[in-house]
């Protein structure tokens, strides 16, 4: 007898359906799995046999053949343990096959029959919903994550026999109540914690308002990391669509906690400078998301930027432009989302004290040039704001007076983003930083005085065509923060202040 159970897998961050066929017939007692199974899938026969026997079911003394379709897509992981076990019992007449219609099953089995969590449940549930399935059986630990999808019945189970009893009508499994997205996540820190640094805070507000990339240059202990960690607190709250996109990435990466149904706060990723290029952009024989994808819709912070290997940094160039990253391997090619704000920090020289009023710099000009040359010109060109960070004076540290809070600054950012949402209503663009060349020409028209100023700067500083566009994008954001309809000379002048990397090194 042949029985079919529907399950699901994940390619990149998208779910796809997998049909599991189980045939039991006469022959030597065996269990064969076909359909490009990887090692963990082939090992499932051991877990299934033990789980069935420990839950009181007899493992059939027959020739068992399991086929997974589509057969040309590699199957990996332990997601298919539970559906294989259900298909085996259905083929043996223990479970009524008609109850499997419109049902999706995913989950890993322990030797005792416990159903353990698996990664990628949210994309699988979304795929089931889009294909018209009415219910899904999954591990109890993944229930909160799948409960975000309201259009499908989510049935969480802790033990294997719960699925069998539900399908036989003995003991129904209680459905998970549809999850209600939480409010904006609360952050444990606030921009008001930062003493002084008003110029840098203003630059970060501009960056948040337009989604621009930032490089902060300053001596050790000046607050660069402290400022970067608080940038996420002034970004607009995630929309439901953005939250689902971000949650899919974290689900595939296996980073969702048991009680977390949806990622509601902007991600903040701060990888160490020893990471590999695969850890940064994604990789592996079966590609997994890297740091640029885990920072999707949030912030990727690279502290001590020149300490990162140059080949690793060069991997950022394509994601910064395209907002996606494609990882190609022999087995498959996967595309991951990578729309993030890059925030980087660095010292002005190897010792870190060039231009400092407190300590003397010990670096010669050649050492400074070598240090800065670790970052390529094309990468620097893709960073919109180059911001100097000065050391904080003692009087500023001692004062109890605080600057504007994250809530106050977020109101300014939200107002500017509202203008952009209205401007790009008929376009897939979501922020000024994501504008194409055609959008820049349309929405960043300059008057004569502003155009003359930009021309002078272009010729004097030798700006590239990319820098020209990025100056206009930043100027457009500054105008939005001012509530101005047109980009004026003052907006261009302020934007040009953030494109003078050479002055930090002189």
Provide the descriptors you would attach to this structure in a database record:
506 residues; alpha/beta; Ribosomal Protein S5, domain 2; Rossmann fold; 22 helices; elongated
Description:
The protein has helices spanning 39-42, 44-54, 81-91, 121-130, 143-146, 160-167, 198-210, 224-231, 240-252, 277-281, 291-294, 310-314, 317-322, 365-372, 377-381, 394-398, 406-423, 437-443, 448-461, 465-482, 489-497, 502-505, and strands spanning 2-11, 14-25, 30-34, 63-69, 103-105, 108-109, 115-116, 135-139, 153-157, 214-217, 268-269, 299-302, 324-328, 333-337, 341-346, 385-388. With 506 residues, it is an alpha/beta fold. It has 2 domains: 2-167, 2-Layer Sandwich (Ribosomal Protein S5, domain 2); 191-505, 3-Layer(aba) Sandwich (Rossmann fold), CATH 3.40.50. The strands form 5 sheets. It has a 5-stranded parallel sheet with strand order 11-12-15-10-16. A 4-stranded mixed sheet has the order 1-2-4-3. A 3-stranded parallel sheet has the order 5-8-9, with helices on both faces. The longest helix has 18 residues, at 406-423. The chain is elongated and about 85 Å long. The mean pLDDT is 90.
């Amino acid at each position: 007898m042949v029985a079919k159970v529907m399950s699901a897998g994940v390619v990149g961050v998208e779910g796809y359906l997998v049909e599991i066929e189980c045939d039991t017939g006469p022959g030597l007692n065996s269990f064969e799995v076909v359909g490009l199974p990887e090692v963990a899938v082939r090992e499932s026969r051991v877990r299934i046999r033990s789980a069935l026997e420990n839950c009181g079911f007899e493992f059939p003394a027959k020739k068992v053949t399991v086929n997974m379709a589509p057969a040309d897509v590699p199957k990996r992981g332990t997601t298919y343990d539970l559906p294989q076990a259900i298909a085996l019992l259905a083929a043996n007449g223990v479970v009524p096959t008609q109850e499997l219609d419109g049902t999706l099953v995913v989950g890993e089995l322990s030797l005792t029959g416990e159903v353990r969590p698996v990664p990628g449940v949210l994309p699988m549930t979304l795929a089931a919903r889009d294909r018209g399935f009415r219910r899904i059986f999954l591990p109890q630990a993944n229930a909160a994550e799948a409960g975000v999808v309201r259009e499908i019945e989510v049935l969480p189970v802790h033990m294997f026999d719960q699925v069998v009893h539900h399908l036989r009508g003995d003991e129904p499994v209680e459905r998970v109540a549809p999850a209600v997205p939480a409010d904006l996540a609360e952050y444990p820190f606030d921009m008001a914690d930062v003493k002084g640094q008003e110029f840098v805070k203003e630059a970060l507000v501009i960056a948040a308002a337009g989604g621009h990339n930032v490089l902060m240059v300053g001596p050790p202990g000046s607050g660069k990391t402290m400022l970067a960690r608080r940038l996420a607190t002034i970004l607009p709250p995630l929309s439901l669509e953005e939250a689902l996109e971000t949650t899919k990435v974290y689900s595939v990466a296996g980073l969702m906690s048991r009680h977390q149904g949806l990622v509601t706060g902007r991600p903040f990723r701060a990888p160490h400078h020893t990471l590999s290029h695969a850890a940064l952009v994604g990789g592996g024989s079966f590609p997994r998301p890297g740091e640029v994808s885990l920072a999707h819709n949030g912030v990727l912070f690279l502290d001590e930027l020149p300490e990162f290997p140059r080949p690793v940094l060069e991997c950022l160039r394509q994601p910064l432009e395209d907002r996606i990253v494609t990882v190609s391997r022999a087995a498959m090619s996967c595309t991951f989302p990578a729309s993030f704000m890059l925030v980087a920090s660095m010292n002005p020289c190897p010792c870190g004290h060039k231009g400092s009023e407190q300590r003397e710099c010990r670096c010669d000009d050649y050492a400074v040039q070598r240090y800065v040359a670790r970052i390529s010109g094309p990468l620097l060109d893709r960073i919109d704001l180059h911001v100097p960070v000065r050391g904080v004076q003692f009087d500023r540290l001692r004062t109890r007076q605080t600057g504007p809070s994250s809530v106050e600054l977020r109101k300014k950012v939200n107002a500017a983003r509202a203008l952009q949402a209205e401007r790009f209503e008929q376009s897939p663009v979501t922020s000024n930083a994501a504008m194409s060349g055609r959008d820049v020409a349309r929405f960043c028209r300059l008057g004569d005085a502003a155009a003359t100023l930009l021309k002078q700067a272009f010729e004097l500083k030798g700006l590239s065509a990319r820098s020209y566009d990025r100056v206009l994008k930043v100027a457009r954001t500054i105008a939005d923060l001012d509530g101005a309809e047109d980009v004026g000379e003052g907006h261009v002048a302020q934007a040009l202040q953030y494109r003078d990397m050479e002055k930090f090194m002189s």
